[in-house]
Design a protein that fits this description.
The chain is of the alpha+beta class. The protein is 35% helix and 13% strand. The strands form two sheets. Strands 2, 3, 5, 6 and 7 form a five-stranded antiparallel β-sheet that branches. The longest helix is centred in the last third of the chain and has 49 residues.
C-alpha cells in the first residue's frame, strides 16, 4: 500500500467515531425540550468545532510529513539557487514499508508545476517506477523525470546537527541529510554517462518533487510520498537591479563615478607634473645665473697696485 493510501484519522472519521456517539448518549439523558438538552446541544456543537480544528491541524501536519521538504536555511543557505534545490532526505518516512531480507532504494522524481495532473504518475500499470529522463520530459515540462537514486536513509542513526559546526564533519552531515537537485552540470553532455542524470534546473521556474520507495528485488514500487509544495528557483537579476553595496547605486551611476574618478586623477597628475616642472626650471635658472656671475667676475681686469 502506498504512503498516500495509508489510513489517517481524518476529521470526518474522528467526528463519526467520537462525537456522534457522544451526542446521541447525551440526548438520551435529557428531554429535547428541556433546558439541559439545549445546553448539551450547544456544548456538543462547540466541542465539535474544537475537535474539527485540531483534526485539521493534525491532518495538515501529517500531510507535511509525507512530502519532500526544502532544506532548512541553517543547513543550506541561498536555497533555492538559480539552478538547484536542496531537499531533506526522507528520514523515517518509509520505515513501516520496509521488510527484512529485502533491498530497497529511493527514487526522486521532479517535474515542473505546469505539467498536467494526468502526467504526474510515476509508475506504469504494473507498479514499476518510470525511467523517464530529463530529455524525454523536456526538463519536467511533459511529466516527472527521475532525478536521483540513493539508499534509504537510516532512521536509527540520523546525522547529528551538532556536527554541523564541526568543519571536519559538516560535509558528511550535509551529504547524509540533504540532496541537491540540479547539481550535475555535465551529465547531459557526456555520452558515456550511464547513471541517473541530475541536470541543472531552469531559473525562475516552479517545480514539485516526490520520493518513491522501490523494492530492488521485485523492481516495483512499495511506497511513495505526496508531491511536494511548489518550490521556485531564483530569477536571474538584471545588471541594473544588482545590489551595488554600499551605496546601492545603479549601473549608470557606477560608470559616471568611475569616469569622474579617472578625470580627477589625471588632473591631479597634471598639476603635480606642472609644479615639478616649474620647480626644476627655477633651479636651472638659479644655477645659470650663478655661472654667469662667476664668469663675469673672472673676466673683469683686477686693478694693479702702484709701486710707490
Amino acid at each position: 500500500m502506498t504512503q498516500v493510501g495509508k489510513k489517517l484519522f481524518t476529521p470526518i472519521t474522528l467526528l463519526r467515531t467520537t462525537l456522534v456517539p457522544t451526542i446521541r448518549w447525551k440526548s438520551k439523558l435529557q428531554h429535547p425540550s428541556s433546558p439541559g438538552s439545549r445546553f448539551l446541544e450547544g456544548s456538543s456543537m462547540c466541542s465539535s468545532w474544537v475537535v474539527l480544528a485540531f483534526c485539521c491541524l493534525g491532518q495538515l501536519c501529517a500531510d507535511q510529513s509525507l512530502k519532500p521538504q526544502i532544506a532548512a536555511p541553517q543547513l543550506a543557505t541561498n536555497n533555492p539557487t538559480l539552478t538547484t534545490v536542496a531537499l531533506e532526505k526522507p528520514f523515517c518516512m518509509f520505515d513501516s514499508s520496509l521488510h527484512p531480507n529485502k533491498s530497497y532504494v529511493i527514487y526522486l522524481y521532479a517535474m515542473k508545476e505546469t505539467a498536467s495532473a494526468i502526467s504526474s504518475l510515476v509508475t506504469d500499470n504494473s507498479g514499476k517506477p518510470l525511467d523517464s529522463t530529463f530529455q524525454q520530459t523536456s526538463g519536467g515540462q511533459l511529466g516527472p523525470y527521475k532525478a536521483a537514486l540513493f539508499d534509504v536513509p537510516n532512521c536509527a542513526s540520523p546525522p547529528r546537527f551538532a556536527d554541523v559546526g564541526d568543519v571536519n564533519k559538516v560535509s558528511d552531515v550535509l551529504k547524509r541529510y540533504l540532496f541537491r537537485v540540479g547539481d550535475d552540470g555535465t551529465c547531459l553532455y557526456d555520452p558515456n554517462f550511464l547513471a541517473v542524470c541530475n541536470p541543472p534546473l531552469a531559473p525562475d521556474t516552479t517545480y514539485r518533487f516526490k520520493y518513491v520507495l522501490l523494492d530492488s528485488t521485485e523492481g516495483i514500487m512499495k511506497d511513495q510520498t505526496l508531491w511536494s509544495d511548489p518550490i521556485k528557483t531564483r530569477r536571474v537579476k538584471l545588471p541594473l537591479k544588482i545590489d551595488t553595496w554600499p551605496g546601492r547605486r545603479s549601473g549608470d551611476m557606477i560608470v559616471i563615478t568611475s569616469i569622474l574618478s579617472v578625470l580627477v586623477f589625471l588632473l591631479l597628475a597634471g598639476f603635480l607634473a606642472s609644479v615639478s616642472s616649474a620647480a626644476m626650471g627655477s633651479k636651472d635658472s638659479t644655477a645659470e645665473t650663478r655661472c654667469m656671475s662667476q664668469t663675469i667676475q673672472q673676466s673683469e681686469p683686477r686693478p694693479q697696485l702702484s709701486s710707490e
